[in-house]
Automatic annotation (TrEMBL):
The keyword Magnesium does not apply. InterPro entries: Sulphur_carrier_TusA, TusA-like, TusA-like_sf. The keyword Iron does not apply. One of its GO terms (molecular function) is sulfur carrier activity. Pfam families: TusA. Belongs to the sulfur carrier protein TusA family. This is tRNA 2-thiouridine synthesizing protein A. SUPFAM superfamilies: SirA-like (SSF64307). Residues 14-38 form the UPF0033 domain. Signal peptide: none annotated. NCBIfam families: PRK00299.1. One of its GO terms (biological process) is tRNA wobble position uridine thiolation.
Amino acid sequence: MTLEQQPPEHQHHLDTSGLYCPEPIMLLHQKMEEVKQGEILLVTATDPATTRDIPKFCQFLKHPLVKQEEDAQEYRYWIEKA
């Protein structure tokens, strides 16, 4: 039996539930302007396209994707501001 790893602590949250590409990424780009370097933003989404788009966003802008998880209803991403 393994213990469930606790999600990383976050200072900001962006809920994009119910929105579809490209809206989650557009809102993420705007929200990252409010986040200070080293802080973590939790993004929640329901659009499956975010599983492709958010990691690419992080890679392109060099923001570490600290953790990514999903369940039947929701995708969650913890992004550290570079």
